[in-house]
Amino acid sequence: MKLTISTSDRRFSISGTEEQLKALFCKLVSNIIFDKTVTISQQISVADTQSALAVKNQSFGVKGFLFVRCPKCGHEYGFCSKSPITEAICKECGEKFLLTSKMTPVEFTCECGHSFKYLTNISDSEFDIPCLDCGTPNAVIFHKADNQYKDVRRIHNA
What we know:
The protein is of the alpha+beta class and 158 residues long. The protein has 2 domains: 2-56, no CATH class; 62-157, no CATH class. 19% of the residues lie in helices and 39% in strands. The chain is built from 3 helices and 11 strands. It has helices spanning 18-33, 49-56, 152-157, and strands at residues 2-6, 11-15, 62-69, 76-85, 87-89, 96-98, 104-109, 115-120, 126-130, 137-143, 148-151. A 7-stranded mixed β-sheet has the order 4-3-8-7-11-10-9. The chain has a two-stranded antiparallel ribbon with strand order 1-2. A hairpin with a 4-residue loop joins β1 and β2 (11-15). The radius of gyration is 20 Å and the shape is elongated.
């Protein structure tokens, strides 16, 4: 299998296993997205599979409305990130913690009528999330069929 990158006057191809090339591709895209400078003097070696495979497991960031729980102190809070981020800093204790691409979607409609969609790092079977507009706590429960959290009222009324 080959990975090929080309422009109108240049072409680069490298051979490897599908797994190696997928990891290398993710690393290259990650470098471009996060604006890491790649110089011509740097050599990319597919033989360095440990490095390439480690990239496969890296998080490339999450964005949008996030509702997170600090793993150190348990403080929960919501915020919006307009660009992809890979970590958050607890507003209570200052702990820096990783956010993964495996965050779970949350959807709920508050009794005030406003609907919200978040991503969360919380893995409890259910928890409360405050309405962004009125502050009312909304109980959400993990819905296995959809692999996301939904408000309790929606599940019980379905």
